Amino acid sequence: MTLLEVLQLSTEFLKKRKIDNARLNVEHLLAHALGKKRIDLYLEFERELDEAELAPLRELIRRRGEGEPLQHLLGTVEFCGNVFKIDKRALVPRPETENLVELLKLENPKSTIVDVGTGSGVIALSLASKFPEAEVSAIDISEDALTLARENAERLGLTARVQFRKGDLLEKNSERFDLIVANLPYIAMQDRQSLAREVLYDPEVALFGGERGDEIIRKLIEQAPSHLQPNGLLALEIGLGQSEPLGDLLSQKKFHDIETKRDYQSLPRFLLARYG
């Protein structure tokens, strides 16, 4: 079969299995299997593919049809202009989380930053790139996720810039920071059945925040005052319907300048607040 025929048949296969953006998915997988860029495919539509080229592609298409995330199959994800390694050890970064990084500004270029629940390290490493003089730490409860984050730090040449450590939020941590940023689990356990197949490939510890969904975020809000420098910033990614109750909790805990920020789809996705 020609490359174009393979592309068309594979696209139909994924469409029948309810995969969104089927053609784009196939283009990515085909380019990955052939070791080419997507743009190169358009120059080779008439080229015949042999069995040695088709076999690995069939396996990738089969797995994608079963719902395995495209990012897991490619092994990488682009985030804030950098390419990160990604696999089942951590949550696949969502585009809206890039928006959180873009929102953050530092009053002092040498600020101290901690990314709580760092996962693959995309937030911490992106902030280290964005603020080269800042002191950046990253914490996660999962050793597997931390190993992946360290691999990404090495991949980007940022090993010396970010300190990774294992921990349950900020427990057993005596430091104070100018910025605490966190994209913590915020999905309610009762919503499990409504999640897309792809999402369920992510580690459960990175998805579910408790029966309501916001329990882990609430725990961090409780801890944050004793870990922020005067007028320090807490920046949170949150789930839908959580901005008002979590904003109320921030007020109760004497945070000020509380702001809800919207993501690319104009959904209330981020909470920013200062303390002290």
Q: Order of helices and strands, N to C?
A: HHHHHEEHEHEHEEEHEHEHEE
Structural class, from secondary structure content?
Answer: alpha/beta
Shape: elongated
How are the strands ordered across the major sheet? 5-4-3-6-9-11-10
Largest sheet: 7 strands, mixed
Mean pLDDT: 96
Return residue spans where pLDDT drops below 50 for at least 5 consecutive residues.
none
CATH topology name of the largest domain, in short, is Rossmann fold
Assign the CATH superfamily of the largest domain: Vaccinia Virus protein VP39
Helix content class? 25-40%
Description:
With 276 residues, the protein is an alpha/beta fold. It has two domains: 3-67; 80-275, Vaccinia Virus protein VP39 (Rossmann fold), CATH 3.40.50. Helix content is 38%, strand content 22%. The chain contains eleven helices and eleven strands. It has helices spanning 3-16, 22-34, 38-41, 51-65, 70-74, 95-103, 122-130, 143-155, 204-207, 215-223, 243-252, and strands at 76-79, 82-85, 112-116, 135-140, 162-166, 177-182, 187-188, 208-210, 228-237, 255-262, 268-275. Strands 5-4-3-6-9-11-10 form a seven-stranded mixed sheet, sandwiched between helices. A two-stranded antiparallel ribbon has the order 1-2. The N and C termini lie far apart (67 Å).
List keywords for this structure.
single chain; 276 residues; alpha/beta; Rossmann fold; 2 domains; seven-stranded mixed beta sheet; two-stranded antiparallel sheet; 11 helices; elongated
